[in-house]
């Protein structure tokens, strides 16, 4: 018995065996694949149409190559970086509809309204998508209505001393856009006033259907 206890103590001091280490790694890989594999797979399917029996064609304009939301250098009014909300460690990952514009004229407000209505139209899946806006300026009349009509549209600002590095082909100051960000923080697609709410809703429903994350 003394010899057995001594062997156990020796094993404890020596740490896990190579087999235990390999088993732990396999378990970690399996858990990652179960949790995040569907999201990666869904993204590949959406961009390539691979194994897509419905032959879905996206209505928004794809951002290629995919750009990280971190390059936008945006933060909340409290100073929290937007990029911190995304990634594999998030407990409740979400998609994001981000309205970006310079001076928020009528075209800009059309996109604010479109993003709000599409989010609501998702019904039971509405909580899987959040909304935010980064705007150069807001007319006093819209500002007075903001809390009533767009209370769930969070306002974001560039971090001090930075300028958003928008993806190629996107210039919100001259052409307001809605950008779609996936739960990993990738800017996937963008929409303009030439897109309808029905088109954006169709894309979102498709993505939420094939994705188990966010």
Total beta strands: 8
> Over the alpha carbons, how many angstroms does the gyration radius reach?
22 Å
Q: Indicate the structural class.
A: alpha/beta
Helix content: 25-40%
Q: How would you state the average pLDDT, rounded?
A: 83
Summarize the biggest pleated sheet: 6 strands, mixed
Beta strand %: 15-25%
Main sheet: which strands, in order across?
Answer: 1-8-7-3-4-5
Features:
six-stranded mixed sheet, 21% strand, 8 strands, disordered N terminus, single chain, two-stranded antiparallel sheet, alpha/beta, 214 residues
Molecular structure report:
This protein is of the alpha/beta class. Helices cover 39% and strands 21% of the residues. The strands form 2 sheets. The protein has a 6-stranded mixed sheet with strand order 1-8-7-3-4-5, with helices on one face. The chain has a two-stranded antiparallel sheet with strand order 2-6. It is globular and about 70 Å long.
């Amino acid at each position: 018995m003394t010899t057995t206890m001594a062997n156990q103590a020796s094993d404890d001091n020596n740490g896990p065996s190579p087999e235990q280490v390999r088993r732990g790694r396999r378990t970690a890989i399996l858990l990652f694949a179960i949790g995040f594999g569907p999201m990666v797979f869904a993204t590949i399917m959406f961009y390539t149409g691979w194994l897509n029996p419905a032959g879905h064609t996206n209505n928004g304009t794809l951002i290629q190559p995919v750009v990280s939301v971190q390059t936008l250098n945006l933060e909340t009014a409290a100073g929290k970086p937007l990029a911190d909300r995304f990634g594999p460690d998030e407990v409740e990952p979400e998609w994001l509809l981000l309205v970006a514009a310079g001076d928020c004229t009528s075209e800009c407000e059309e996109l604010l309204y479109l993003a709000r209505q599409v989010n609501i139209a998702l019904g039971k899946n509405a909580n899987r998508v959040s909304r935010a806006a980064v705007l150069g300026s807001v007319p006093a009349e819209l500002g007075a209505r903001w809390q009533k009509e767009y209370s769930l549209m969070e306002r974001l600002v560039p971090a001090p001393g930075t300028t958003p590095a928008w993806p190629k082909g996107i210039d919100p100051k001259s052409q307001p856009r809605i950008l779609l960000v996936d739960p990993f923080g990738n800017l996937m697609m963008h929409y303009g006033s030439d897109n309808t709410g029905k088109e954006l809703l169709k894309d979102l429903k498709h993505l939420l259907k094939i994705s188990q994350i966010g």
